[in-house]
Design brief:
The chain is mostly helical. It has a single domain, classed as Formate dehydrogenase/DMSO reductase fold. It is about 80% helix and about 0% strand. It has 11 helices and no strands. α1 packs antiparallel against α6, α3 runs antiparallel to α5 and α10 runs antiparallel to α11. The longest helix is centred in the middle third of the chain and has 35 residues. The protein is globular, with a radius of gyration of 20 Å.
Length: about 290
């Protein structure tokens, strides 16, 4: 595969992991009527910390793709017309706001408003990422499927990551907390199901309305990437199904953590493969 795309693959995946994890942490910390406030903070402290390094690595990778840090600075000059500029602004803003929220958390002064503002900025970053591809000349990307893929990964990564972080916490897990985690798992599964439901519509549209480039993408789906696509969905669905065992079977806490690690690994591989396919099947309408 073209080497220049690897930083983009990792940047988009890591950014969506960071944003998704942060959002689900904020959701847990917002449920004060159902979950003890201190418990919600304690079980998500590690996850909140990890969001920062993950996003920092993502930003470094994005700079590599632009070539130089100066390239990122110049890109910010076109906010009125460039989705790339907006992506840089939102992604950088998300990281800065994470620093603020993490500082407040460390001081014991977690602020829910800051948390939600940071989440909205993170969603803006994901939307901007998807929009960069939506306005290209590649039929495979000029479709609502691009938004489903990017936001789907954000939800799946966030749900599974937060479930894993909470379960490995030494705090006692209340019934209310476990119910919330179960809903997170179902949200991750729903994100996968929605993409699968839309997949036939997407593929049919490529063949009918995508011209020669769209037809080429459809042939890649049916040929070169067919097995990869099947494996991609099997891995992600299996990962989420394994997490379901935690909530519907009487499993010891130590075993729950091991199950979560395995499930997270499957989901990561599945989503990585999905993103690889996303870039690999993007055929331009203009060649040469």
């Amino acid at each position: 595969m073209f080497a220049e795309e690897w930083p983009l693959i990792l940047f988009t995946l890591l950014s969506q992991l960071a944003v998704g994890t942060y959002i689900f942490i904020v959701i847990i910390r917002s449920l004060n009527k159902n979950i003890d406030r201190q418990l919600s903070i304690n079980v998500t402290k590690q996850g909140l910390f990890l969001v920062g390094p993950v996003m920092f690595i993502a930003l470094i990778l994005s700079v590599f793709h632009l070539g130089t840090p100066l390239g990122a600075y110049r890109a910010l000059l076109n906010l009125d017309s460039s989705w790339l500029s907006r992506e840089i602004l939102f992604a950088g803003g998300f990281f800065v706001l994470w620093i603020v929220s993490y500082y407040l958390d460390r001081k014991g002064a977690w602020n829910q408003i800051v948390g939600w503002v940071t989440s909205i900025v993170g969603l803006g970053a994901v939307f901007s990422m998807a929009s960069i591809y939506f306005v290209t000349i590649k039929p495979a990307w000029i479709d609502v499927n691009t938004y489903l893929v990017f936001f789907g990964t954000t939800v799946v990564f966030g749900a599974v990551a937060v479930i894993m972080v909470v379960l490995q916490s030494k705090e006692e897990k209340t019934e209310a907390l476990m119910k919330v985690l179960k809903v997170f798992g179902l949200a991750g599964l729903a994100a996968i199901v929605i993409q699968l439901i839309y997949l036939p519509v997407y593929a049919a549209g490529l063949s009918v309305d995508g011209g020669l480039a769209g037809a080429e993408t459809a042939s890649l789906f049916a040929g070169k990437y067919a097995y990869s696509i099947i494996i991609r969905w099997i891995l992600s669905i299996t990962g989420l199904a394994i997490i379901g065992l935690i909530f519907y079977k009487n499993i010891k806490p130590q075993t729950q953590c091991k199950i979560c690690y395995a499930a997270f690994a499957l989901v990561i591989i599945g989503e990585f493969l999905g993103r690889f396919i996303f870039y690999g099947t993007g055929v331009s309408m203009i060649v040469g």
